[in-house]
Amino acid sequence: MHRRQFIGTMATVVGAALVPAVPFSVRAQKTSLTVQQVIDRIIAKIPGDALSQTVDTLKAGSADQIVKGIVTTMFATVDVIKKCAALNSNFIIAHEPTFYNHLDETEFLKDDDVYRYKTDLLRQHGIAVWRFHDYLHRHRPDGVYMGVLQRMGWEQYYVESSVVVTLPEMRLEDIVRRAKERLGIHAVKVVGEPGHLCRKVAIMPGAWGGRAHLAMMKNEKPDLLICGEVNEWETTEYIRDARAMGMKTSLIVLGHVLSEEPGMEWVAPWLRPIVGDIKVTHIPSEDPYSKVLG
């Protein structure tokens, strides 16, 4: 071997021998994404063009900060923020508002102690909050809807672009018991007789509003409507009058938080392949109401 080649070869061998035996997985470069890059990747997975008007905006933190870990949840409550910080995560993706109104307007809260405590807590831990509402409901299938179906064990009955599933015939009281057990709900509101046999069931988690409920019932005529929340002078009274005239329709009101939380639980595994090796954790925001006493 030529002297120069020999020296070069030996240098390579010796240099390789000096490299620590570090596993490849450790030496592999970690995923580095900003908050905005994560948001952009999520939106790219949603059908249709980017929304020009949406509530899915950044509520706290900076779009330029590097994401250390992600938490999905229904509401970015104070408890969720503290748990997020304990995980060394700094990006919360929440389905609903952070500051107590649909548009997260804060001018009217600027002197409010609760608002200032929450914003100070987010700032202290360097946590960004982004709302994932409009885009999640545009996903096909709707992420919240699929989360509820999976938790109820009814995903095999899913029909594309429909809120109605056709189940094996079940008694109303058995559906109530199933919803409480599988969704972690200790109390629900029910209109209907325990023994009412239900097969055609409309599932509308969250707050669709009375007009949407009434239009669906007129068109679909379900045996049962399961929803998140109602204005009681709208959907509830409509169903009461419908039953008085002989229609066989029942109602289960689950509550807003626990009716949609399964959707944000569904988001966590959906999100993981989108963000590489950034840790994604679901933290439930829990039922805000205390259990009935006595």
The assigned structural class equals alpha/beta
**Structural shape:** globular
Arrangement of strands in the largest sheet: 1-4-3-2-10
Share of residues in strands: 15-25%
Named at the architecture level, the CATH assignment of the largest domain is 3-Layer(aba) Sandwich
Structural descriptors:
294 residues, alpha/beta, Udp-n-acetylmuramoylalanyl-d-glutamate--2,6- Diaminopimelate Ligase, Chain: A, domain 1, 2 domains, five-stranded mixed sheet, 11 helices, disordered N terminus
Any overview of this molecule?
With 294 residues, this protein is an alpha/beta fold. It folds into 2 domains: 35-139, NIF3 (NGG1p interacting factor 3)-like (Udp-n-acetylmuramoylalanyl-d-glutamate--2,6- Diaminopimelate Ligase, Chain: A, domain 1, 3-Layer(aba) Sandwich); 143-257, NIF3 (NGG1p interacting factor 3)-like (Udp-n-acetylmuramoylalanyl-d-glutamate--2,6- Diaminopimelate Ligase, Chain: A, domain 1, 3-Layer(aba) Sandwich). Helices cover 40% and strands 16% of the residues. It has a 5-stranded mixed beta sheet. The longest helix is centred in the N-terminal third of the chain and has 16 residues, at 3-18.
